Amino acid sequence: MSSVSKVACFINGEERLEDNVFEKFNPATGEVAALVVESSQSLVDEAVMAARAALKGPWGKATLEHRVDALRRLAVLMQSRFSEIVAEEILDTGKPIAAVATNEINRAIANLNSFADIALSERIEPFRTEMANGASAINETVRTPVGVIGIVAPWNLPLLLLTFKVAPALACGNTIVVKPSEQTPRTAVLLAKLALEAGIPAGVINVVHGHGANAAGSFLTAHPGIDAISFTGETKTGEAIMRSASVGPRAVSMELGGKNPALIFSDCDFDAAVTGTVRSMFDNAGQVCLTTERLYVQRPIFDRFVEALAEKALALKPGDPMDPSTTMGPSISAEQQAKVLGFYERTARGGATVITGGGRFEMPAPFTNGYWVQPTIWTGLGDDAEICRNEVFGPCAHVAVFDDEDEVIERANNSEYGLAATIWTKDSDKASRVARQLENGTVWINCWRVRDERAAFGGFKKSGVGREGGSWSLNFYSHPKTICRLD
Ligand code: NAD
């Protein structure tokens, strides 16, 4: 046990190792992979104080250009430490290197540059105001930092999702305390260390570790020294955090759960729709908030489509995360694996036809005790079945048949969630018509998970409060101040 590495908090530019630690397991093997500091209330207090002090220091006085340069230096430094970041992310998540190295970390780095560009381009033009006495004034609205931002992050795309928050928060001149998921503590600390190396002053990014309720997560979100809270995670957790945020009150940005539909019309490009839908169901072992968990396929192609999906699901290859040919990783934890297998068991018992999967993968050593679950496809249940309503966050979906456009729109919208939807058809008028009627924050037409940091991102209904991306992020991480002077 003593050889297991420890993951420290990072406060005011220094690593903080404390005696109170919890075990973090490697999802691919089930072995203890790290001992992580479980932050006490007083450690969280220190982190918030460090962030508050840093606001009064050089960072608080830095110009937008200076902050944007710092973000770009951080991006360059991250690029130069790319393999180290990839290795740390894989240790925490067990994800295949093909996904982490070709997609996630590149996109995390790109986010720093994108928000640097957005902050520079989204300046608000001043207004000339004519006055009754014939004189005029200039009204200029400038962005000022909100203060100390508390960021609470999930485990599914640890560094990537963190950068969607850290980059605009820093561009706007705030300081930060991050509480990464207890499942994925490493890359947040690495990001904070690299930021210091890139010249971002000590105390601007602080990281505390630990669990959520009655632990580091709630210590942070209830802390009176936090000025705004940015959260990504489950809807229920979002509700608890909003209750904490009501004291103050503090602004919240909430990216929450989903139960995302795909609408597959019989006039689609069949092969593209199969390939795209398989990605949207099984990428990251289904642990993406945008994962498709409900499919509606038009009757003429239903049987052929289900068969083609099953064939591709069976071709996915779980295995050593460091093997470039591995295409499927494990669930993040034993709890998540049990949650997914619980859905599998209840769905089969509820009368679904199991097209493929339905259990755990039997893996060879050293992966025997990892948290592997099979990609799973069901048919045959009604829209009110548990599997068609509740988010699983695993590699699985129920496929239902539909006949016409109005019917499928109504069924796709019949959900508490409204994060994302996907439409597959070659008829572009129909695609636009359907997209406008779907109650989702993002609708993809003949593609999936193509994101532009300048566009709005977030959820309708129980999938979120507020938006990330472009000016929406800048509006959350800054207070507008209007300065008026006579012309
Ligand atoms: P989670 O809500 O369990 O945990 C997220 C974070 O909140 C963790 O850091 C956790 O420690 C912390 N936390 C838990 N309880 C808390 C409390 N009472 N007070 C303060 N902090 C608390 O979510 P998860 O399991 O890490 O992530 C999966 C969920 O995230 C899924 O529902 C998924 O859809 C959602 N998600 C949404 C988006 C999006 O952009 N909408 C993106 C990724 C994930």
UniProtKB/TrEMBL annotation:
CDD domains: ALDH_F8_HMSADH (cd07093). It comes from the Bacteria. Residues 20-483 form the Aldehyde dehydrogenase domain. The keyword Oxidoreductase applies. The active site is at E255. Keywords: NAD, Oxidation, Oxidoreductase. GO terms for molecular function: oxidoreductase activity, acting on the aldehyde or oxo group of donors, NAD or NADP as acceptor. It holds the Pfam family Aldedh. Belongs to the aldehyde dehydrogenase family. This is 2-hydroxymuconic semialdehyde dehydrogenase. The lineage of its organism: Bacteria, Pseudomonadati, Pseudomonadota, Alphaproteobacteria, Hyphomicrobiales.
